[in-house]
Amino acid sequence: MTDFSQIHKPVLLQECVDLVTPALHALDSVAVDCTLGLAGHTIAFLKAATNATVIGIDRDEEALEKATARIAQEGLSARFIPVHAAFDQFDEVLRAQGVSQVQAVFMDLGLSSLQIDERERGFSYAHDAPLDMRMDTSQSLTAREILATYDADRLAHIFKEYGEERFSRPIAKRIVQQRQTSPLETSSQLTALVDAVIPAAKRGGGNPAKRVFQALRIEVNGELDKLRRTLPQIGLHLAVGGRLVVESYHSLEDRTVKNFMAQGLRVDAPADMPVIPPDMQPFFKALTKGAVKADADEIAYNPRSASVRLRAVELTRPLPQRWLHTFELESQGPDDGARGAHSHRRRTHARRG
Ligand SMILES: C[S@@+](CC[C@H](N)C(=O)[O-])C[C@H]1O[C@@H](n2cnc3c(N)ncnc32)[C@H](O)[C@@H]1O
């Protein structure tokens, strides 16, 4: 039998259980795991909160199948609903389940170790593979297509913004130059190109192509746009007393989560207002002090946890009217279509576990 806990080690597992499950005591409570992966966190939630049902979303069908099988092995299928969807379809997923409010929402952003280790999906600079990088293989946009079609400015922007790559412009220019004679098809071709552009004296630790690969993965999967559109949808569906718990691994993701949560943690009134009307009082309560990080022991056991930032809030009262409107507008956000000529399957696909 496969030992999934060794394929993907859930990050800050006990901390997440302690933050999520106090909201799940009531009979029929519902939690959504927006990033099911191999269900490491979900299984712990189901075991700790025996009244709760978890709706587990993942855009990766293979992860979803493996997680569903693992939950069945644990005898927990009766309280689990797997859904194949991207998490920015949050509202649609809940509607399809006939659920309007949920008691907890969990997100563990990024890739699972299963995806990183699957060489043929091209996520890793360490293995030669076609430049694919799609989490959802039914989507059409791949890393190869981005490298073949985006102009130098757009490529440089992505490398700088999502990869914090100092040599974003020369790398982008070299890509555009090279593709005129031979398009980039494989991860080793991209690694070699980055290697040739970044001067040896200016390299930090690790593989010099790491940041370019990260940036491409974020762009291929529209990760930040999806997160920006999803958080307000979650806000609209949280029950009072409901909790939102998010683990991020990239500074832009963490900033997006922090800014979203901050909107409900502050008084929504001018500083000189003598009496604050109840409607302008905060609607979130912070459950973490700043961001929780992994300690040295966890980082030694699971290096992926080194960059984690865990933040959590609880909804303390119904959303004020003004914020209902704001979240409705924000959840529409810019569409993926703006990133390139590609289409996503918008259909959600739910299966009984
Ligand atoms: C870090 S893993 C989750 C691991 C999980 N917590 C566990 O313990 O096994 C992240 C998962 O989220 C999925 N994912 C990432 N972005 C997504 C999105 N926008 N919509 C749905 N799933 C997404 C990935 O396919 C991956 O399986």
From TrEMBL:
S-adenosyl-L-methionine binds at residues 39-41, 58, 87, 108, 115. Pfam families: Methyltransf_5. Residues 328-353 are annotated as: Disordered. GO terms for cellular component: cytoplasm. One of its GO terms (biological process) is rRNA base methylation. It catalyses: cytidine(1402) in 16S rRNA + S-adenosyl-L-methionine = N(4)-methylcytidine(1402) in 16S rRNA + S-adenosyl-L-homocysteine + H(+). Its EC number is 2.1.1.199. One of its GO terms (molecular function) is rRNA (cytosine-N4-)-methyltransferase activity. InterPro entries: RsmH, SAM-dep_MeTrfase_MraW_recog, SAM-dependent_MTases_sf. It comes from the Bacteria. It is found in: Cytoplasm. Keywords: Cytoplasm, Methyltransferase, rRNA processing, S-adenosyl-L-methionine, Transferase. Residues 341-353 have a biased composition (Basic residues). It is an enzyme of class 2 (transferase). Specifically methylates the N4 position of cytidine in position 1402 (C1402) of 16S rRNA. Belongs to the methyltransferase superfamily. RsmH family. HAMAP family: 16SrRNA_methyltr_H (MF_01007). This is Ribosomal RNA small subunit methyltransferase H. It comes from Bifidobacterium animalis subsp. animalis IM386. The gene is rsmH.
